[in-house]
Amino acid sequence: MRDPYDILSVAKNASAKDIKSAYRKLAKKYHPDHRPDDPKAKEHFAEVNQAYEILGDETKKAAFDRGEIDAEGKPRFQGFEGAGGDPFAGFRRASRAGGRPGGHPGDAQHFEFRSGGPDGAGFSGADIFNELFGNAFSQGGRARQAGRGGGRPAGMGDLNATLDIDIEDVARAAKVTAVFPGGRRIAVKLPHFVEDGQVIRLKGQGEETPFGERGDALVTLRFRKHPRYRVEGRDLHVDLPVSLRDAVLGAKVPVETPTGKLALSVPAWTNSGRTLRIKGRGLPKKGEGHGDLYAHVQIMLPEGGDPALEALFRQSA
């Protein structure tokens, strides 16, 4: 993967605000919903998300700047880079440099290669791994963490994605699909209660790790701006167009809700701007129940005019 700074087109000394602004601009630009005819939109969108996953997190950004993790957030084990197939080349260079990989003569840290035999000749690869990783690896390269309270380091092997969801999906606890870096798609069943910005963790749905345990898939949910509903907490607000006749005489007016259409009783002589409450038609609350839907009456005059209505007002003037 490319350098996240290049992907977001920001400098290494860019502020968190500038990084976030660059991410939002590119995420909007490459969102698949905005570029349905671009076959590479999903790829670019995933790349932008992955870059922000690194640079948008102060801890990960610092680790990347120090060279401790790569552009995908995976750890870089010092001493193995550039070995050209020889996993111990870095340590051979270290012994000549006086201690640690990439170090200089006189450095304080020292790696002791223990003997594999009683006479001290040669060294054991298993001993080296045990010295470096605290017995994390057993012979054959598999982890011996199970049952010891260990496991993979936090975050290793995790996948991250941001998913925009509709208000209807939230209200119905629908099944949605998250797209991860690399194009992998995972179906996600939304829980009963979902908040804007909430992160859902899918255990074991991430990548394989050297510790014999898969990482997790983390999905950040964001409420997509809706053309009809305005969200306030768990309540929803919607404009309700009502004809002048229905406002004067009263009527049953159809109104859309996230879970279906219903008929709302508009009392006679209802003024424009009046708010009518529809109980329990908002978003699910934590625990039980739902918020409410508030319909704001907007009186609409007939398009093209109404001669009879005009004559009536002229007659009463």
Keywords for this entry:
alpha+beta, 3-stranded mixed β-sheet, 9 helices, HSP40/DNAj peptide-binding domain, 4-stranded mixed β-sheet, 317 residues, 21% strand, single chain
Please, could you describe this protein's structure?
Keywords: Chaperone, Stress response. It holds the Pfam family DnaJ. This is Heat shock protein. The protein is of the alpha+beta class and 317 residues long. Among the domains are: 156-225, Urease metallochaperone UreE, N-terminal domain (HSP40/DNAj peptide-binding domain, Sandwich), CATH 2.60.260.20; 230-308, Urease metallochaperone UreE, N-terminal domain (HSP40/DNAj peptide-binding domain), CATH 2.60.260.20. Helices cover 26% and strands 21% of the residues. It has nine helices and eleven strands. A four-stranded mixed β-sheet has the order 6-7-11-10. Strand 8 (251-257) and strand 9 (260-266) form a beta hairpin. Helix 2 packs antiparallel against helix 3. The protein is elongated, with a radius of gyration of 30 Å. The protein starts with a helix and ends with a helix. 20% of the residues are buried.
Strand order of the largest sheet: 6-7-11-10
Largest sheet: 4 strands, mixed
Average pLDDT, to the nearest integer?
Answer: 79
Put simply, the count of helices is: 9
Spatial shape: elongated
The H-level CATH homologous superfamily of the domain at 230-308, spelled out, is Urease metallochaperone UreE, N-terminal domain
What low-confidence regions span 5 or more consecutive residues with pLDDT below 50?
Answer: 79-87, 89-149
- CATH class descriptor of the domain at 230-308: Mainly Beta
Order of helices and strands: HHHHHHEHEEEEEEHEEEEH
Could you estimate the helical fraction of the residues in percent?
25-40%
Q: Beta fraction of the residues? A: 15-25%
Amino- and carboxy-terminal Cα gap: 75 Å
Beta strands, count: 11
Derived from helix and strand composition plus strand pairing, the structural class reads: alpha+beta
CATH topology (level 3) name of the domain at 230-308: HSP40/DNAj peptide-binding domain
CATH architecture of the domain at 230-308: Sandwich
Radius of gyration: 30 Å
Domain J: 3-68
Protein name: Heat shock protein
Organism: Nitratireductor indicus C115
Keywords: Chaperone, Stress response
